[in-house]
Amino acid sequence: MRGRKTNKKQKHSERYLSVAKQIDKDCVLPPAEAIQKVKETATAKFDEAVDVAINLGVDPRKSDQMVRGVVNLPHGTGKKQKVLVFAKGEQADLAREAGADMVGAEDIVEQIQKGWKGWKNFDLIVAGQDMMPIISRVGGILKARMPNPKSGTVSPTPARVVEEIKQASRVEYRVDKNGIVHMPIGRASYSPEQLLENFAVALSALLKAKPSSSKGRYLQKITLSTTMGPGVRVDVNEAQKLGEQVKG
User: What is the pTM of this model?
Assistant: First the structure.
């Protein structure tokens, strides 16, 4: 029996197509204008996230060109996240006070070893530095979700990390296999000024994370978009100037 052919081409809604007509794909805009245009495309019935996609001049296959890190956005992202924390004693108490959704140590490790899948329901897993020998027992299970000092999820003060996450100010970024970094910079309900400041701080963090082995143009292409909206191109040179002006 011959199967039906399926159309794999993504179909966009009439709302999306209507909004997309307002965007000139060949036009690049200064950051402030791009943000205003993105806000105009946010016509969904919910408060859409505003994201930035930045193509970098790096080769992620080379370990010395892997770009990753953490940045705290001054106005947060507007997204609430569930946090699992590995900590003991006073650090555990402080983590709970900071708003951690679950806190434990050997007890959680034992649950995971016995097949507990609940850890997958947490957006982030944070650990105190003294917890790493214990967590290493389930490193093969947690894999990419394993707390990591480079991503800021291993800390001598895990409660502080939890506070940043719960304030929705902390954003972890990592270049993907195509050399692109994706980051949320707020919600469509944010003011243009709030989004612009978050955007500038995010860019500043990426510029500071530039690998010394990266040659040529580092910031190659920048696109802003909302959850349900089309992409808006940003002038790379203007964006870089904005990022370089951020102090600290």
Answer: 0.71
Length of the chain: 248
Q: What is the pLDDT of residues 39-58, one digit of tens each?
A: 998 888 899 999 999 999 99
pLDDT tens track for 150-171:
888 999 999 999 998 888 788 9
Lay out the sheet containing 83-86: strands in order across: 102-104, 83-86, 124-128, 154-155
Please, which residues have CB within 8 angstroms of residue 43's CB and are 6 or more apart in sequence?
A: 15, 19, 228, 229
**Structure-token pair, residue 166:** 């719960």
Give the domains, in start order, of the chain with CATH numbers. Answer: 23-78+171-244 (3.30.190.20), 83-166 (3.40.50.790)
Write down the residue that tokens 């991503």 correspond to.
Answer: 151
Q: How far apart are CA 55 and CA 52, in angstroms?
A: 10
Q: Can you tell me the distance from the alpha carbon of 77 to that of 197, in angstroms, rounded to the nearest whole number?
A: 12
Residues whose CB falls within 8 Å of the CB of residue 106, separated by 6 or more in sequence, listed in order = 134
Q: How far apart are CA 59 and CA 175, in angstroms?
A: 9
